[in-house]
Design brief:
Elements (H helix, E strand, L loop, with lengths): L1 E4 L30 H18 L5 E3 L4 H12 L10 E5 L14 E6 L5 H15 L6 E6 L6 H7 L6 E6 L14 H19 L3
């Protein structure tokens, strides 16, 4: 299983990128621990622990342009034999741009439109996410394509070939109803849900 903390680790002029941000504690400033790629670190750690406990092999990724990461993961995947079971690549994110719109307080699990197994994986993860996050209006498995409004999500996983790729955006940074989910306990719960969904899907492959 490949867990990629995206935004962080880009080279050169994008080295400072940590993704979206929000004033989660309401003090009028954006602190370092209110940056997307810092927050995703919490749920990825929880996911890694749960996956390891379930007997999976985990490879954390966190540097390079996304295309380079995808190439590296494709190369790494060839070093694992069938005894390791199915492989999954997770592009870790949090959503932003809630904008106060009714019904938009959902969690997202994006899957590659070209992937025959991706939809089942995304549905399994979304089901587990919904169980631990009642603050969400719903948890959606969403098909992503290289054009249209999902092209950004597609860019996070589109170069992955052998592993089944998903882009995980379990909550909105700027949705007040998601505030508890963005605390350490909430993030850990969403990471565990990610792992449990992967594990249940893997058992069916």
């Amino acid at each position: 299983m490949f867990l990629d903390r995206q935004h962080a680790g880009k080279p050169g002029r994008r080295a400072a990128d940590r993704g979206a941000s929000a004033d989660l504690d309401g003090d009028g400033t954006i602190d370092t621990d209110e940056l997307e790629a810092i927050l995703t670190m919490h749920y990825l750690t929880a996911a890694e622990v749960a996956l390891l406990e379930d007997g999976h092999t985990v490879v954390p990724i966190s540097d390079g342009w996304y295309s380079a990461r995808h190439d590296r993961v494709n190369a790494y995947s060839g070093t694992f034999g069938s005894e390791y079971g199915p492989q999954v690549y997770v592009a870790a994110h949090l959503n932003a741009g809630w904008g106060g719109r009714p019904g938009k307080g959902y969690g997202s699990v994006f899957y590659d439109v070209r992937s025959r197994r991706g939809i089942r994986l995304a549905v399994a993860i979304a089901r587990e996410l919904r169980l631990v996050a009642p603050e969400l209006s719903e948890a959606k498995a969403i098909e992503c394509k290289p054009d249209g409004w999902t092209r950004g999500a597609f860019g996070t996983i589109g170069g992955v070939v052998r592993p089944v790729g998903i882009c995980y955006e379990p909550a909105f940074l700027d949705c007040p109803a998601h505030a508890d989910l963005l605390g350490v306990d909430g993030l850990r719960a969403m990471g565990a849900a990610l792992a449990h969904g992967i594990d249940k899907w893997a058992a069916t492959q």
